[in-house]
Design goal:
Oligomer: single chain
Number of strands: 10
Strand content: 25-35%
Distance between the termini: 62 Å
Shape: rod-shaped
Structural class: alpha+beta
Helix content: 25-40%
Largest sheet: 5 strands, antiparallel
Number of helices: 3
Length: 160
């Protein structure tokens, strides 16, 4: 019996307890902790596309340009997703205001690769504004109009 235990102990000593692995099989378990923040400036004046008529009255946001910029800024803080994209540079947000004073659609220029994610978030922000516009009019009749607001985006990354 002692001989059998001795033989088994000797046999198991020959079996390797660890296996060798290649460098390519090693993965690090450390994660990078980075915080991404998107900031934007709305310092540019709101611009109106020219109406071709005798006495044009341009569309106005209820509360004025300052109220519009304040509300859109708050909405963008809530809806821009900093984890999905980085955006840098000056963009033009073109708003299409209908005859009834509602926001019909918008366009973001210039178009960038994977810009559909930013456009989706801007659409959510604009829809949540519950904006009320006084429609533009030509000779007393409401007309469709366009408004351009330039926005300067900057994406910053911070190590934690």
């Amino acid at each position: 019996m002692k001989k059998l235990i001795f033989i088994l102990m000797f046999a198991f000593d020959l079996v390797p307890a660890q296996t060798l692995i290649e460098d390519s099989e090693i993965s690090e378990n450390s994660e990078e902790f980075v915080r991404v923040a998107i900031s934007y400036e709305l310092d540019y004046p709101t611009e109106y596309y020219r109406l071709k008529c005798g006495s044009p009255v341009y569309a106005r946001f209820t509360g004025g340009e300052g109220a519009f910029k304040e509300i859109i800024s708050k909405q963008m803080k809530g809806f821009l997703d900093t984890g999905l994209y980085t955006v840098n540079g000056t963009f033009e947000l073109i708003l299409y205001i209908g005859k009834n004073g509602s926001l019909q659609r918008f366009q973001l220029k210039p178009e960038v690769p994977n810009g559909h994610l930013l456009e989706r978030d801007l659409e959510l922000a604009l829809r949540n504004m519950n904006s009320s516009w006084t429609p533009a009019s030509c000779n007393g009749m409401p007309v469709d109009s366009r408004i351009r607001q330039k926005i300067n985006f900057r994406t910053d990354s911070f190590d934690l």
